[in-house]
């Protein structure tokens, strides 16, 4: 397969361990891949994507990157942290949506001295136009990273994660991850097809975009980049969005509380709580056998948790 350059930004491999108390509670073997502990800020799945995306920016000679998301975007905060570490400038052009005050990830953006601009729109086209406008105003070329870092190149980060998991020598019957912009789901499913034969991937959707179209498309594009000859499965996507993207759900909050109470591990309201609620739901309907190994991908997000009022 083809290889792409990566910038070393995180500490990999991340830990992988069993969750004894959750396993007892759910009647199966639940494991966790700690991408929340990958060493940049509060960790998270975006670091694996940014290793590819920012290497590409550097290779092409860019020294200014811009990305987008909602106000509490983990991806935006991590893009800023990683870009600064590489000596690049970063401007965040965020949607004026969600918690825009100096809370959660906005505290971290503030501490980094990041230029954050809010645009009152739901249209990414408008956001990208604004990025071009700012670039032209500054007379600088802009490396634009899409929302969530979810393009084919970014998705390769989760193909790597699956390879990393295969190197543990463990067999997992199931893997569960969150799906918010699709790149993690695409990389995980593609990576599992390549490196983890016999492992089923389920993705908890935390937004209401048409992921049944987006995820297969990203999977195909990423497989093409790698020149990988692989038969791609139809994604198993379950709707865990609840009242809306980034709005806490009851099931998600119960999952966050359970993980904190039983294992001392912090999940978040926007992604990992809802994703783990999907795993709990499947366990409760008897989807997992007693001897199965079920792996939950902890994709980070603690910053957003602390923007919420509880
Ligand atoms: C962005 C994000 C996700 C979702 O990943 P996508 O690749 O955007 O689908 C999951 N968890 C956390 C904490 C995130 O920040």
Question: Could you describe the 3D structure shown?
Answer:
This protein has 310 residues and is of the alpha/beta class. It is 42% helix and 16% strand. The protein contains eleven helices and ten strands. It has helices spanning 20-26, 46-59, 74-85, 105-111, 124-138, 152-166, 183-195, 211-226, 250-263, 272-284, 302-305; strands at 16-18, 29-34, 64-67, 89-95, 115-119, 143-145, 174-179, 200-205, 236-239, 293-298. The strands form two sheets. It has a six-stranded mixed beta sheet with strand order 1-2-10-7-8-9, sandwiched between helices. Strand 8 (200-205), helix 8 and strand 9 form a beta-alpha-beta unit. Helix 7 (183-195) packs across helix 8. The longest helix is centred in the C-terminal third of the chain and has 16 residues, at 211-226. The protein starts with 15 loop residues before the first strand and ends in a 5-residue tail after the last helix. Bound molecules: pyridoxal-5'-phosphate. Pyridoxal-5'-phosphate binds next to helix 3, strand 7 and helix 7.
Short recap of the structure:
This protein has 310 residues and is α/β, with parallel strands linked by helices. It has eleven helices and ten strands.
